[in-house]
Specification:
Layout: E1 3-7, H1 11-23, E2 27-31, H2 34-43, E3 48-52, H3 60-68, E4 78-82, H4 87-96, E5 100-103, H5 108-165, H6 171-204, H7 208-215, H8 222-236, E6 243-247, H9 256-272, E7 280-287, E8 290-297, H10 328-339, E9 343-349, E10 353-361
Parallel strand pairs: 1-2, 1-3, 3-4, 4-5, 6-7
Antiparallel strand pairs: 7-8, 8-10, 9-10
Length: 363
C-alpha cells in the first residue's frame, strides 16, 4: 500500500483530500503545517507528498527545501497545491525540485490523476535504480573470481613451495618467497577493501540514521594525513622523487577513514598508470567554505571523461584492463564524495594525463 503525506493548513480541505485518497486505497498521513509535515516525513518516509504552499511556520517551499537535503526524502515526489499557477510559483517550485502542481480549486479526478501519474513515475525510477544496482552487483561479483583468486593461488603455491622444499631452500630464497607472499597478500587486502567499501556505501544509502551520524564526523590534521598517505604510496612504487606536494591544512566534514580511502585510491592510480620520472602532483587548499584536493598525473588518461560512466571494472573508462581492478575503487570514491555532499571533477586527455579534484565542506 502506497503511503501519502498531505500537508495543508486548511483543515476542511485537508480532511477532504485524506478521505478521497483513503477511499482509493492509499495509506494517508496528514499534517497541519510545514514544520509538522517535515517531522512526519522524516519519521515515516512517504511515497508521495502533497503540500500547500502558503502555510504558517514553514511554507511549502521550505518543506521541499528541507526534505530535499535529507538522504531518505530527497527523491520523494512532491505535488504542490497553489491558489494561482503563476510563473513565479512554477519557477520557485521547480528550482527546488517540485514534481507537479494542482491549482485550487481542483476536483477529485485531477487529484487522483496527478497522484497516480507521480507514483507510476516513481515506480519506474525505482525499477531502473534497482536494475542499475543489480547490474553493479553483478559487475562487482563477476570479476571477484579473478581479482581475489589470483593472489590467493599465488599465496597457496608459494606456501606449498616452502613447506615441501624447506630442506633445500636457502635463507635468501625463503626470504624472497616470503616477500612475494606478502606482496600477494597486500594486493588481496586492497581489493577486498574496495569491495567492502562498495557494499558499505550501498548500505549507508538505506540507513539514514547511521549516515547522519557519519556526516557529523570530521577529519582533522588533514594536511598531515594527505602528505603521509601520498608519501607512503610513492614509496611503495619506488617513486618518491616523482611526488610533488603542496598541501594547506583545514578540517574537513567527512569521516577520516573515507577521506583516507579516497585520497589513497586516486594517488595509487596516478602512480600506477603513469611512467617513472613523470610527476604526480597533489595539492590541498581551502577555497571559501570548501576544501579542494587536486591529484594530477601525466599518465595514459581516460578515453571517456564522464564521471557518470565510471562503473566497477568497466574497461571503457580508460585503457586499463579488468585485470587491473580499476573501476571499483573510482566508483567507490565517486559515491563517497556524493554521499557526504562533496563534489568530484575530472579533466583528462588520452596520453597526456588526468586531474581529479575532490571538494568537501570545511568543518
Amino acid at each position: 500500500m502506497k503511503k501519502i503525506l498531505v500537508i495543508e493548513d486548511n483543515s476542511l480541505l485537508r480532511d477532504n483530500i485524506v478521505e478521497i485518497l483513503e477511499f482509493e486505497g492509499y495509506e494517508v498521513n496528514s499534517a497541519e503545517n510545514g514544520q509538522v509535515g517535515i517531522d512526519a516525513a522524516l519519521a515515516d518516509v512517504p511515497d508521495l507528498i502533497i503540500s500547500d504552499i502558503n502555510m504558517p511556520l514553514v511554507d511549502g517551499y521550505g518543506v521541499l527545501a528541507a526534505l530535499r537535503k535529507e538522504e531518505t526524502t530527497k527523491t520523494v515526489p512532491f505535488i504542490f497545491l497553489t491558489v494561482k499557477n503563476s510563473m513565479q510559483d512554477l519557477r520557485s517550485g521547480m528550482n527546488l525540485g517540485a514534481n507537479d502542481y494542482l491549482t485550487k480549486p481542483f476536483d477529485m479526478t485531477e487529484l487522483l490523476n496527478a497522484v497516480s501519474k507521480r507514483l507510476e513515475m516513481r515506480a519506474e525510477i525505482n525499477a531502473k535504480e534497482n536494475e542499475k544496482y543489480d547490474r553493479l552487483k553483478n559487475s562487482v561479483g563477476l570479476p571477484i573470481a579473478t581479482i581475489i583468486d589470483d593472489p590467493l593461488k599465488n599465496i597457496e603455491r608459494m606456501s606449498d613451495l616452502i613447506t615441501e622444499e624447506i630442506d633445500t631452500l636457502s635463507p635468501p630464497e625463503i626470504a624472497e618467497i616470503s616477500r612475494l607472499i606478502g606482496s600477494s597478500a597486500s594486493k588481496l587486502r586492497k581489493e577486498i577493501s574496495k569491495i567492502l567499501i562498495f557494499y558499505r556505501i550501498e548500505a549507508l544509502k538505506n540507513n539514514a540514521s547511521e549516515l547522519k551520524e557519519l556526516k557529523a564526523l570530521k577529519t582533522t590534521e588533514t594536511a598531515e594525513r594527505i602528505k603521509s598517505i601520498c608519501q607512503s604510496v610513492a614509496n611503495d612504487f619506488g617513486r618518491n622523487s616523482d611526488l610533488y606536494l603542496h598541501i594547506n591544512d583545514s578540517e574537513v566534514q567527512i569521516p577520516q577513514e573515507f577521506l583516507d580511502f579516497s585520497v589513497k585510491e586516486l594517488v595509487e592510480n596516478a602512480f600506477k598508470f603513469s611512467a617513472r620520472s613523470f610527476p604526480v602532483k597533489v595539492m590541498g587548499q581551502a577555497v571559501d567554505d570548501r576544501y579542494e584536493i587536486t591529484i594530477q598525473d601525466k599518465g595514459i588518461g581516460f578515453k571517456n571523461k564522464s564521471l557518470e560512466s565510471i562503473e566497477p571494472y568497466s574497461k571503457d573508462n580508460s585503457g586499463y584492463s579488468k585485470g587491473d581492478g580499476l573501476g571499483l575503487g573510482l566508483y567507490d570514491v565517486k559515491n563517497l564524495v556524493q554521499l557526504f555532499e562533496g563534489e568530484i571533477s575530472l579533466e583528462s586527455e588520452v596520453g597526456l594525463g588526468s586531474t581529479f579534484v575532490l571538494s568537501y565542506k570545511t568543518a
